[in-house]
């Protein structure tokens, strides 16, 4: 039994009801215009109901439609086609956003007006039977319209909720319908989705064609649909303007009328770059360990060579020409020993022992150790939380570099727990600037290229920072340290 047949049986809508309705039609037909006019007068008197109409011309068209509805209501035939037409009326009401309550109140007004006409124009006993049949068919009509109305309304609300959820997800998701069109999509804030694409277009309108091709996404979707299982593309590389972007794509088959397929795109570019950096760091760590071991092995022979050179040199006469050669060899031994010391300093983990101390005092001690002629500027003093030994080593290294660059050297204290070490030399070239703090990068002809790398390592280990500032001339390095806990900012 169909739904409609079940409804007819439930209210006992029988042949006699059909005869009663057909008999009532001539009475109601003569009052049809009055009933319809009264109906729309009531509707137009309610702002929410009136809002669904565009203009008076639409109201006049709908009045003619309602006359046809009344005729069908009373003359039938009350078959499956009749039921489907009533369902379509419910869908139209959803589309024009008519509040559901007006379907019930409107039917009440129509029913009452038709019953009043029958009572005024028919015999009492006949009018009673006609009114009972009018109530039955009016209830059936209302049930048919509202069932579809509520179904369509729930469908629309579910679609709206789906769009709302997917659109605001912090990942890239596209939901496809059975025709392969995008039914919902996340906001195009990932620089991946085409901002011009709109719901209802195919997948190709949303995603770059290069990504679709490199991921072979169409084949993956077919495989997922055929197997009913999730298909994952672990890595897909998209090259945009020379930049690599890595994605993982997951295709999920869905068995739902609203969604046939879900495509989830996860960008892995940062993860891939982090993996590369981790591998590089691991390689550097191995190199550092190897360098430290080699440095230890070299240091003892260097000490022996240096001692031997001193003994041999001391045994030669002052004017012996071999003495000059031995001094040059000694200089190279000293240079190798410095390189070994720097390698050990760079490879060892920093053992930080921060304590509260005066910034000006740290600067003065470092100036004294450096042997560099320095002008100390800035009257402001500040207590910092730093390791005095590491801080002095960093300042001494920067002062000696500034002296080697040439020209006056000065230190500016402040503002706050910072100091700047500046010189009047040629400055740092643009080619070296971005790599200046990397190991073995130097602007000196005889430098090891580890001094600045070690200085930044020690500064960051203390919780501070070391950076090269932009300037018109010379080089200027800024050391930022932690403020002592009790110091006001």
Features:
Globin-like; single chain; Beta-Lactamase; alpha+beta; Helix Hairpins; 5-stranded antiparallel β-sheet; 16 helices; 4 domains; 489 residues; 5-stranded mixed β-sheet
In total, how many domains does the architecture comprise?
4
The strand count comes to 13
> Quick one: overall form?
elongated
**C-alpha Rg, in Å?**
44 Å
Structural class: alpha+beta
Task: Determine and state the CATH class of the largest domain.
Answer: Mainly Alpha
Q: Quote the beta fraction.
A: 5-15%
Spatial sequence of strands, sheet with the most strands: 2-1-5-4-3
Question: Could you state the order of secondary-structure elements as H and E?
Answer: HHHHHHHHEEHHEEEHHEHEEHEEHHEEE
**What is the CATH topology descriptor of the largest domain?**
Globin-like
Overall residue-averaged pLDDT value: 82
Can you identify the CATH superfamily of the largest domain? Globins
Which blocks of ≥5 consecutive residues have pLDDT under 50?
A: none
Level-2 CATH architecture of the largest domain: Orthogonal Bundle
Describe the largest sheet. Answer: 5 strands, antiparallel
| Cα distance spanning the termini | 82 Å
The residue fraction in helices comes out at: 55-70%
Instruction: Determine the number of helices (DSSP H or I, runs of at least 4 residues).
Output: 16
């Amino acid at each position: 039994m169909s739904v409609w047949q079940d409804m007819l049986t439930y209210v006992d809508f029988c042949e006699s009801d059909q005869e009663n309705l057909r008999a009532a039609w001539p009475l109601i037909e003569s009052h049809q215009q009055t009933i319809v006019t009264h109906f729309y007068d009531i509707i137009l008197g309610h702002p929410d109901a009136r809002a669904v109409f565009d203009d008076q011309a639409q109201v006049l068209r709908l009045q003619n439609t309602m006359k046809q509805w009344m005729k069908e209501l009373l003359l039938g035939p009350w078959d499956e086609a009749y039921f489907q037409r009533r369902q379509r009326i419910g869908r139209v009401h959803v589309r024009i956003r008519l509040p559901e309550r007006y379907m019930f109140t409107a039917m009440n007004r129509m029913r009452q007006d038709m019953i009043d006409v029958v009572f005024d124009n028919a015999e009492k006993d006949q009018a009673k039977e006609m009114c009972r049949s009018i109530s039955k068919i009016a209830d059936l009509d209302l049930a048919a319209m509202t069932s579809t109305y509520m179904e369509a309304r729930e469908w629309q609300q579910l679609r709206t909720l789906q769009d709302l959820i997917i659109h605001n997800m912090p990942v890239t998701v596209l939901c496809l319908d059975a025709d392969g069109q995008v039914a919902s999509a996340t906001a195009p804030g990932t620089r991946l989705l085409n901002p011009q694409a709109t719901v209802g277009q195919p997948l190709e309108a949303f995603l770059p064609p290069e990504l679709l091709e490199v991921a072979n996404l169409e084949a993956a979707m077919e495989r997922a649909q055929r197997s009913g299982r999730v298909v994952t593309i672990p890595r897909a590389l998209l090259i945009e303007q020379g930049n690599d972007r890595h994605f993982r794509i997951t295709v999920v088959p869905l068995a739902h009328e609203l969604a046939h397929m879900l495509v989830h795109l996860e960008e892995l570019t940062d993860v891939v770059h982090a993996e590369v950096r981790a591998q590089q760091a691991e390689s550097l760590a191995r190199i550092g360990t190897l360098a430290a071991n080699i440095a230890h092995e070299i240091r003892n022979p260097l000490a022996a060579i240096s001692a031997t050179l001193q003994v041999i040199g001391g045994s030669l006469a002052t004017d012996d020409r071999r003495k000059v050669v031995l001094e040059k060899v000694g200089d190279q031994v000293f240079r190798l020993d410095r390189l070994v010391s720097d390698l050990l300093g760079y490879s060892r983990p920093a053992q930080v022992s921060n304590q509260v101390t005066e910034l000006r005092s740290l600067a003065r001690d470092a100036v004294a150790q450096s042997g560099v002629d320095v002008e100390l500027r800035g009257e402001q003093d500040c207590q910092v939380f730093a390791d005095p030994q590491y801080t002095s080593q960093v300042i001494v290294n920067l002062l000696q570099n500034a002296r080697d660059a040439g020209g006056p050297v000065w230190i500016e204290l402040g503002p706050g727990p910072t100091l700047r070490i500046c010189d009047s030399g040629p400055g740092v070239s643009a080619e070296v600037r971005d790599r200046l703090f990397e190991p073995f990068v130097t602007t000196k002809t005889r430098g090891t290229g580890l001094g600045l790398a070690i200085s930044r390592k020690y500064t960051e280990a203390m919780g501070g920072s070391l950076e090269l500032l932009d300037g018109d001339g010379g080089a200027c390095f800024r050391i930022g340290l932690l403020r002592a806990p009790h110091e006001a900012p």
